[in-house]
Amino acid sequence: MMRRLGTGCLLAVVATAAPAGEPLKLNPFNDPFLPATEGARACPVPLGPAYTDAQVRAQSHHRAERGTSCWLEGRCKEPNAYRGDAGLARNVVQALRSDAALADTRIWVTVERAFVTLEGCVGSAAQVQRAEAVAKGVEGVHLVLPYLALPGEGVRYRTVEPK
Predict the structure, then answer these.
(1) Quick one: which of 113, 114, 96 has its CA closest to 105?
(2) Which domain holds residue 128?
(3) Distance between CA 136 and CA 92 in Å, rounded?
(4) Which residues lie below 8 Å from residue 24, measured CB to CB, with a gap of 6+?
């Protein structure tokens, strides 16, 4: 299981690394990409899910394969592993917004087949851990990937405005 999970994460990282100069399609798969908290105003806005044409073709194949495999193995309730992502994203956003310890953070949530990516800015390492724990605590979340910048750090995600 861990090997399969690691491979999936590696594919996700490789899939988001676009060669310089190639145009990107913004969120061609309509993955949920939502602002969750709005406390740290000086935080760069994440680009969100974006792919080149070649990446869209490769992702289309992988998404169909992963979705079907998840259902056949009994890990997903539906034959499309992505179908529940919108509801899951709303639940993660609500959980993050409801946590007073995260009120001064700026976090965006992306969900892809129950994998939750957190991008944004926080004030402390404790807030990184808290945001990850809150998201992991939402029923149905399989994995949380926190790309949250601490004060004085550069962001670790692609932004709307070039860095």
Answers:
(1) 96
(2) 2-149
(3) 9
(4) 18, 47, 50, 51, 52
In a 10 Å sphere around its CB, with 0-12 CB exposed, 13-18 middle and 19+ buried, how is residue 140 labelled?
A: middle
| Residue 83 DSSP class | T
Q: How far apart are the first and last CA of the chain?
A: 36
163 within some domain: no
Asked if 70 and 113 touch (Cβ cutoff 8 Å), the reply is yes
Rounded CA-CA distance 155/110 in Å is 16
Q: Considering the domain boundaries, does residue 162 fall inside one?
A: no
Q: How far apart are CA 41 and CA 19, in angstroms?
A: 30
Residues of the chain with pLDDT under 50: 1-16
Q: Which helix (H) or strand (E) holds 116?
A: strand 115-121
Domain count, the chain: 1
